[in-house]
Amino acid sequence: MFSHVILGATDSEKSKKFYDVVFGTLGKDANHGNGSTIGFAMQITEQADAFHAAGVANGGTTCEDPPG
Fold it and tell me: What is the mean pLDDT of residues 31-52?
């Protein structure tokens, strides 16, 4: 169980390489969720819709129902 999650990067390519190596030592291939969920609090419905649409438009997939 996670006690906290922090997301952010100023150099996403460098971060991706770092985390691929670090998490690779655990012997777990990345897949959709690996049994975990991260929730994001949204202020209004339109913000949730825009967040979801941006993710799908940039390579994400809807694994359950879309927001709403």
Answer: 80
